[in-house]
User: Fold Polyphosphate kinase-2-related domain-containing protein from Agromyces salentinus.
Amino acid sequence: MKHASHWTADPIELLRVGEQFRLSDIDPASTPGFDGDKKAGELALAEGADRLADLQEQLFAGSRMGGDQRRILLVLQAMDTAGKGGIVKHVMGSVDPQGVQLAAFKKPTEAELSHDFLWRIHKEVPGPGMIGVFDRSHYEDVLIARVRELAPPAEIERRYDAINDFERAQVASNTTIVKVMLHISGEEQRERLQKRLERADKHWKFNPGDIDERLLRPKYQEAYQRVFERTTTPDAPWFVIPADHKWYARLAVQHLLLDVLERMELDWPKADYDVEEQRKRLAKS
Amino acid sequence: MKHASHWTADPIELLRVGEQFRLSDIDPASTPGFDGDKKAGELALAEGADRLADLQEQLFAGSRMGGDQRRILLVLQAMDTAGKGGIVKHVMGSVDPQGVQLAAFKKPTEAELSHDFLWRIHKEVPGPGMIGVFDRSHYEDVLIARVRELAPPAEIERRYDAINDFERAQVASNTTIVKVMLHISGEEQRERLQKRLERADKHWKFNPGDIDERLLRPKYQEAYQRVFERTTTPDAPWFVIPADHKWYARLAVQHLLLDVLERMELDWPKADYDVEEQRKRLAKS
Assistant:
């Protein structure tokens, strides 16, 4: 693949969470499988953008004619500043907006809290032909909920199973699930938060609560480790992407999506009408 | 404005539907106010893209900090092939997907038909800081509904008033409404439909029903004329954009959005926390 020219190994395998995975083993500044620098990475991203746009259009087309029910759900999880927004803007931004279904899950509202935690999630699952993107997700309910004890331990335990059930049902409904955790170091996070405090055009991205969360980093790392152990399934794998280099994280997520789309063996759907007949009708119209 | 260098007159005024407006007076192949060619138009679009992205980010930022409630709703209406999808892809595609709320209104479902026609519309109005885009809209309920007599004449009449009431309420909730009709000629439409029939990668975009609709073109033109007469209001103006040249239509819609955003006199919101205090906290964290 042209967009993969600097890949020295398949990043899919390198980034996928396996049996003995330990989050603490991962270097957030590494660039697994890619031997190029930032410039090479940005070039590769630009090359991949066209391919991603083409494949997305085929996915979408198949849902509009021919009844292909397949869809993709990209779940993005990370500590603050790790670059979820950048993924949406720079990876998904290259795709026709009509084919992307984006859902950002904030602090739950009163109404949302009065239902099961998956209530608001179900409403946002992507339709056929779509690439759904969850900016935060149902995993918040076992991450911040665990760290800040927003629910009793038994309820948190129940949720891991509920999440696996939920995801299994989505996969059964022709959804390919890709779960990504963007992994940044504490030092890189400090620098990014500093930048937000230094620049007047970035102030709006900062919230004093970000520092409170930052102080809980060790607990979050534990909670993520637990998530990987409880919710890594063959059908809904986790990928941990080192994210100290924004360019690498973006390229890696793009690569995951390209991989999923290429495995789908997409093609333009065949006309479900008689092309010649319609040509004649049109000429007369 | 740099992006407006080929504009010989403000297209806003030229494209806005006024008192004596007649759709039949508009030449779909014209490029009002722009004296450049396709290449110049595409350059101007690329230049405007950065400006649009910047202003959109300020609009969004203001809603996240400082409580700015303003938002934009772009309504797109047109006959098939006129280029609504291209507007979404090439104009809105340059904006961060997180700031765009896109809603495509198809043939209503049974559930939607069992409610008032505005029921499904209300659910899709943009939130604060967002640019909402309606790909087709509540106007279908006085366009196809009128042409194909899907509702009695008295109900159609009632709907014009209901639409004006609805839009007035949106404007009162800090929404700037921009209503666009993309206007293509019958000949250009035939050519575009032909292309969809010729190319295997475009077959999915064609539907035999498109020709049925095409045959009703005169009735649609009448129905649009009636829409302009009944629902052109100072707060929710209509713009008719000649769309035989795709590049012109895209540039014109971008210009309308830039104009709206520039009038908002946006700026980065001021920090609602003590920046110095947070710097110190961060350094210690």
Observations:
- Chain A has twelve helices and five strands.
- The radius of gyration of chain A is 20 Å.
- Chain A touches chain B through 43 residues (CB under 8 Å).
